[in-house]
Amino acid sequence: MSNPFFKNHGPILISEILKSLKIKDNNFRQDRQIKDIKDLHAASESDITFFHLKKYKEVAKNTKASFCITTDSLKNDLPKNCTPLAVDNVLVSLSNLTAKFYPDAINDDFDNTTIDITKTEFKNKIKHGKNVLLGDNVLIGLNCLIGHNTIIEKNVSIGDNCSIGSNTIIRNTIINNNVKILDNCVIGKHGFGFFPINKKNLRYPHIGSVIIEENCEIGCGSTIDRGSMSNTIIGKNTYLDNQIHIAHNVKIGENSIIAGQVGIAGSSILGNNVKIGGQAGISGHLKIGNNVEIGGGSGVIKDVPDNSKVMGYPAKNIRDFLRENK
Asked: What pTM was computed for the model?
């Protein structure tokens, strides 16, 4: 599963899944068991997946999942090994089904397992400020620092030589060696995933985690949401400035530099050596190539190929932008 921190309540009978999706289909064994729910890429033959956007057509063609929640218009793009389960609203159906496999991933209330660090095994192993709290299933490596009033909630692994600032909250996160997280950050809480239905908002379970690879720095006041179905990943030697928001499922490559107040919407993928100027915004489900430079204040609403320099709203080739704005 995507997150080692959430308990999978599967397997679930396909008959129960069909009932949940309000689908009547007797073309296969109703006692067949489905072990997990995963994205198109990660799913195996014992899993169920989902396919809701045409842009993932090529990935869908290669999925190994046995069943896929999708629409009538997309079902023919699935391989023969994958049985389509057509519904009216893929994401709402996915949310309801994910909640059956991972009921503990829906809410993100404060962690009531936390205790003062002075009452734990880490009290003399790391340097820490005042009022530091640790939750269950927390691991901390050697030569680490934790600032005042910081809460390391349940399900966090911190590597060696890491520095965690003051007034920071972390949960459901794996932090590798030599990472600096500055003051007032929130990392690993659920993302902005919900669907309006009948004048109510249906909260989507986020079963992914945050992975911060080695030698990264996360600036003050930044927020990194855990993944919904996959993980949110910050590649090694990537530096984030202050007040940056990284949404669920975002993947940032290695050696990237992102300036202050940048927002990256859910499920976008950034390559290596990407540079983004301050206050730029990147829409969701986009692919930003390697060695891309995005000017400050830009609005990126479509994919950007490798080795490009873009600026403006909507973001375009920087030469075109400068020529049009002389």
From this structure: 0.93
